[in-house]
Amino acid sequence: MSESEKPDPDLRTRLVDAGVDLVALEGAGALTLREIARRAGVSHGAPRRYFPTHLELLSAIARRGFTQLGIQVTTTLGDGGAAPRAQLTDLGHAYLEFALHNPGMYELMFRHDLLQSGHLRLRDTSLPLFGVLVDLVGRARPDADARAVAGALWANLHGIAQLWSWGSLQLATGSDDFAPLLRTALDAYLGPEDGR
């Protein structure tokens, strides 16, 4: 029986697993259909059975990243009993740690073509994370447009993550700790923390 005749219910998972491993080792640029198939141990045409386009396979891999980040954020925030400002600090720290420890996945997750395409409902995984940020900002700054402030804060965090991963911020600030930058970003969007 040839490979094309054998149904493999785990092939979809194996392909995504291979992509997740590949992006962790070699970055988003290495995610070709041929290389993912090779690492999954199948012919280069096999992924098309489950992912008709390359974009759909990349979306499935990115979805894993958003799921992982969501778990990390949920774990970090715990029962949600801390003050909104403290939760935002924890969320920002978790976000930056995720970005710095998973640079290839982070790059893939925020590719506009994947988010815009709607393949595999990737936005359904990414938007709830933004919703957590909006909720916390709204609780910390009830006087503000929470969605706009959260968007600006997220853009700032994204910039810190990107510039930190390139080594630019360490060079510019002379620091090897991003915590002061996170604190400054939060102060800029939420106002100074009480007692400082």
SSE string:
HHHHHHHHHH
Strand count, sense and closure of the main sheet? none
Kindly report how far apart the N and C termini lie.
71 Å
- According to DSSP, the number of beta strands is 0
Q: Shape from CA axes?
A: elongated
Q: How large a portion of the residues is in β-strands, by DSSP E?
A: under 5%
Q: If helices are DSSP runs of H or I spanning 4 or more residues, what is the number of helices? A: 10
- Percentage of residues in helical conformation: 55-70%
Describe this protein's structure:
With 196 residues, the chain is mostly helical. The protein is built from ten helices and no strands. It has helices spanning 11-26, 33-40, 54-77, 84-101, 103-109, 112-117, 122-140, 146-166, 168-173, 179-190. The chain starts with 10 loop residues before the first helix and ends in a 6-residue tail after the last helix. The mean pLDDT is 89.
Compact description:
This protein is an all-alpha fold and 196 residues long.
List the topology elements.
Elements: H1 11-26, H2 33-40, H3 54-77, H4 84-101, H5 103-109, H6 112-117, H7 122-140, H8 146-166, H9 168-173, H10 179-190
Helix pairs in contact: 1-2, 1-3, 1-5, 3-4, 3-5, 3-7, 4-5, 4-7, 4-8, 4-10, 7-8, 8-10
